[in-house]
């Protein structure tokens, strides 16, 4: 099945990995499962990248990541642009901060070595380019000094990020470590789910956070209770185009996807080319386009995922071996 036929993934991230031994060693990657991927980089489970296999640089830690990619392809594009800012078409050459002066034999500029400051400035830059700005991305920082590097860059530049772009921090390790810093690896379990409930271990890997919303959608659409479009007020007919549901609890407002889009662009997103967020005409609550798209794509393309999410979980301890 082609990638575009899948529902929006529950989680897809682009992460920044740093050696806890040598802070100058940075690596950028992407994954739907950060805890499992970190275990791979640290050699606890199979599948780490060759560049992170040197024992002297382990353990690695994920110091920051970006979530909210609408597909694996989207995350790979962002990862590539962040890894290759010197040649990425997404970054105008005048804004390429880590400009390389060296040229390889094939004429391509040599990839500049990554420093934390250059990664932060390039991340800031990528989050502002139109092709990425429309995605419902969220930036997470798990280390105070990395967040400081981000803040330092943010204060130094006059360029503004979209105000609705969420930037969250979780420095749980500091609270837990109480001065005596323990290695991340010590807290890992073989299945990649650590003992922690903070940082990358607190990220939802499945659709559980939107379970109630998905259940509401099933109830309305399975029983043909769409009613009238909240925007154009026409009667909604089953199977007639894409129909999206308000994200707010208790609101059963449904609208044509094109009507929601037009409504968002005319109000909250004025000046934007693609809808990001707006207000539901029925409940007046805030609605985020990205969240609405997750329910829509799950309902339309991911019935299997919906069934899995809404069915009661089978008792744990199933025979399936840990990955
Ligand atoms: Zn309509
Ligand atoms: Zn509503």
TrEMBL record:
Names of the cofactor(s): a divalent metal cation
GO biological process entries: double-strand break repair via homologous recombination
Domain GIY-YIG: 10-92
Gene Ontology MF terms in the entry: 5'-flap endonuclease activity; crossover junction DNA endonuclease activity
Gene Ontology CC terms: Slx1-Slx4 complex
Sorted UniProt keywords: DNA damage, DNA recombination, DNA repair, Endonuclease, Hydrolase, Nuclease, Nucleus
Domain of life of the organism encoding this protein: Eukaryota
CDD domains hit by this protein: GIY-YIG_SLX1 (cd10455)
InterPro entries the record matches: GIY-YIG_endonuc, GIY-YIG_endonuc_sf, Slx1, SLX1_C, SLX1_endonuclease, Znf_RING/FYVE/PHD
Family the entry assigns: Belongs to the SLX1 family.
Alphabetical list of HAMAP family matching this protein: Endonuc_su_Slx1
Oligomeric form and interacting partners: Forms a heterodimer with SLX4.
Protein known as: GIY-YIG domain-containing protein
Organism listed in the record: Parathielavia hyrcaniae
Lineage: Eukaryota, Fungi, Dikarya, Ascomycota, Pezizomycotina
